[in-house]
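Our example pasted here:


***
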Amino acid sequence: MAKDMKVEDYAALADERTGLVPMKNIKHTSTESIGDVAGYHPHVAKRLHDEGWAEPVGNLKSVKPDEKVVTTNTEAERLSKIAIPDDWRTMHHLPLMKIASQLAGRNVDTKAEAEQIVETEWSRRKPATSAVSMSSLPTS
């Protein structure tokens, strides 16, 4: 697609349900790989395209209203692909912030914020096990 598109042209490509323009990354970033597809507001999509970071995927308006768009890469699947080392609590803050940025899908600026983001995902992946012992359960 031509890079001389106007914001209105990107808005025409936006998904009617979300208002976001599906864009495929053509350069690797700290949070996304080449080929990843994400939705952006039309003005952001224009900037990413103009600067050579991403290109529009196409027009999702071609999906009929009674058809469902099937998303195979859910947020939980995306998060589960990001490795969190068992010793993350003792890591230097810079690699920890990189992991947190990948999890959050944006830049993380502080160690405290990184710790909170990683802790939340760590807890989601490793739910606390019940401390109930078998001997404390009632018998019939």
Summary: Strands lie at 21-25, 37-40, 54-56. The chain has two domains: 1-67, 71-125. The radius of gyration is 21 Å.
